[in-house]
Write a structure and sequence with these properties.
It catalyses: 2 5-aminolevulinate = porphobilinogen + 2 H2O + H(+). The chain has 338 residues and is of the alpha/beta class. The protein contains eleven helices and twelve strands.
């Protein structure tokens, strides 16, 4: 192999045109899924204090944000339901009520935009339970535990309700064992074999979820979620979790969070190269950029592009990110920091 001075790698960095020509990674609006919070019981979009620029939308106005996103070229959305405390109970039963905010929002989007928007829905009961956990607590041997199998029944019904309303993909996020299998069987049994599953296959018990829990009203009322979400110290465990979900019928895998787990994204993509891989650029990652930019400590556009490009470079095919509309707008304006 030739060496300096014959080989000069800087020749391939000399101008922007050259850099664009040989770039290994390109970020486009087609890579992005925009998370949307749909709240029951409000009449106007409600700012989320911990997530500057993000809102909870009333069902009646969720089509406004979808319309704005479509105009910018963002066509994929994941919906999260936010409900008042009086609708919450021990088992999260309102999660599968067709009158809930997510089924109604899906129907409104389909009514106004037809098949164009790609609709994913989060399938988890934490925002619908009185205790804020992703599963149903039970007392066993003097300890309060999350009962895996009874939770599967609830999330399966939730997934079917979303499919009936018109969802393209359901996305189980509670890290219950067997969740993909249970949902796949329920969807197929009810005639929704065409509805896909994007599994939160690798979801860590992370400190980066704080702003989301404020947005969705889903913070646990006791304990934490470390008994079912993954230990941040583990990477190889992600292969086992992904393998199980693939065997159970997942169509798309996901790693969450993204930025602190780029090594895991790479590991999962290399282990399952034939499966689309999503990564969730979560609320804490988003809010840190916004807070630092507000202080003038970082260039928001540059840092956002660098982060999302790094996530894609690590192996993600899809990125769930609250930056989606900003990025789409900046791209349309011709901004390219590289």
């Amino acid at each position: 192999m030739p060496r300096f001075p014959e080989l000069r790698p800087r020749r391939l960095r000399l101008t922007k045109a050259i850099r664009d020509l040989v770039a290994e990674t390109a970020l486009t609006v087609n890579d992005l899924i925009y998370p949307v919070f749909v709240r029951e019981g409000i009449n106007e979009p409600e700012p989320i204090a911990a997530m500057p620029g993000q809102y909870r939308y009333p069902v009646e106005k969720v089509t406004d944000i979808v319309s704005s996103a479509l105009e910018l070229g963002v066509k994929a959305f994941i919906l999260f339901g936010v409900v008042p405390d009086e609708k919450k109970d021990h088992t999260g039963s309102y999660a599968y009520d067709p009158r809930g905010p997510v089924p109604r929002a899906i129907k409104a989007i389909r009514r106004d935009f037809g098949e164009e928007p790609l609709i994913f829905t989060d399938v988890c009961i934490c925002g619908y339970t009185s205790h804020g956990h992703c599963g149903i607590p039970v007392e066993k041997r003097g300890r309060k535990l999350i009962d895996n199998d009874s939770t599967l029944e609830v999330i399966s019904r939730m997934a079917v309700t979303h499919a009936e309303a018109g969802a393209d993909f359901v996305a189980p996020s509670g890290m219950m064992d067997g969740m993909v299998k249970a949902i796949r069987e329920a969807l197929d049994r009810e005639g929704f074999s065409e509805v896909g599953i994007m599994s939160y296959a690798v979801k860590y018990a992370s400190g980066f979820y704080g702003p989301f829990r404020e947005a969705a009203g889903s913070a646990p009322r006791f304990g934490d979620r470390r008994s079912y979400q993954m230990d941040p110290r583990n990477a190889m465990e992600a292969i086992k979790e992904s393998m199980l979900d693939v065997e159970e019928g997942a169509d798309i895998l996901m790693v969450k969070p993204a930025l602190a787990y780029l090594d895991v994204i790479r590991l999962v993509k290399e282990s399952f190269p034939h499966y689309p891989l999503a990564a969730y650029n979560v609320s804490g990652e988003y809010s840190m950029v916004k807070a630092a930019a507000e202080k003038g400590w970082v260039d928001e556009k540059l840092v956002t592009f660098e982060i999302l490009t790094a996530i894609k470079r690590a192996g993600a095919d899809l990125i769930l990110t609250y930056h989606a509309l900003d990025v789409a707008r900046w791209l349309r304006e011709g901004y390219n920091p590289f």
